[in-house]
Amino acid sequence: MRFPWGTAADLPTIGTEIDTLAAMDVEGGPGARLRVARERGLAFRREFATTGTPASIVTRDLVTLPYPTRFGLFRASRAIAPFLSITNRMLVIRWDDKVLLFEPSDHEHGRYTPYFEDLSDRTPDVVERRMVKVHGTVPDHLAALGIAVEDVDYLMFDHLHTQDLRRWIGTSSTPALFPNAKVIVQRDELMAMADLHPLQKPWYQPATYADVPPEAFLPVDGSVVLGPGVAVIKTPGHVFGNQSLVVHTSTGIWVSSENVIAAEALTPEHSRLPGLAPWSRRWQQEVVLNANTVETTADQYNSIVLEKTIADRSTRDPRFLQFFPSSELTGAWTNPGTRPTFTHGQIVH
Q: Looking at the whole model, is its pTM more than 0.70?
């Protein structure tokens, strides 16, 4: 299959494969795959803790924006507000001489994603200004942290919805802001972007990848360890090539992705959000998906259970797990019924 930037199969890969999580596809239905995900997640927890810890992790807020409640909390919410708010955050992770930026979204260009562009066009400016709050940009945050753009080694997203990477990795005619950085991405997602399904098209900007350099990508085929206490695990479902970040810190193991938008979506029995706990009991669902795309819903459910199995309990409130949504549910007076029971806000290590 050909891509605007070349053939995905020819691109080099990265990382040390995690044997425990290899070949997660097993014979049998989604129930069998769920059992395997839970078993292997527990095994990986024990294995991963022995890899060490990164030198540091800091969190920086990028933008808070509206998101449909029916997507973020799937079928569980009984809030009257049609929209909730999510805050997109960047993690800056350092180990040895490496710097990884997780979720370094160019939110200025992300607004041109078809779904959000259409939403903006239909929203009065005065309302949009109340619902969208910019906290900072990736370059400004790095400058404040004293990190030179030349020192960034890796960029990583749990998936490439909304992402326009041209300013970060350059094109044939424009220089890259991060001249030495490579984008860690599942090879499956690159392949999917070459021929998007109609369910996917509102959320991607494939035309923005037409002129980016192929050498800027480092595909991952599954789950790999990148460094001490830093790993990428494959978590398909939200998109075909979804991936999650796992880090081992001073408070234990954290997992981060956008598979759910709130820590309480992994333990909805403890949620005070209207509808979540009774919905979970009634339908025997142990997690609440972030479901703006429903490409492979059962696989996403299984992937969230894998994340849930790997993450440690929060040291602040053990009812909730150290799952850090890359876009976290944020309370706002404009969105009644969507104020989270518990938020992390940041990872500090």
A: yes
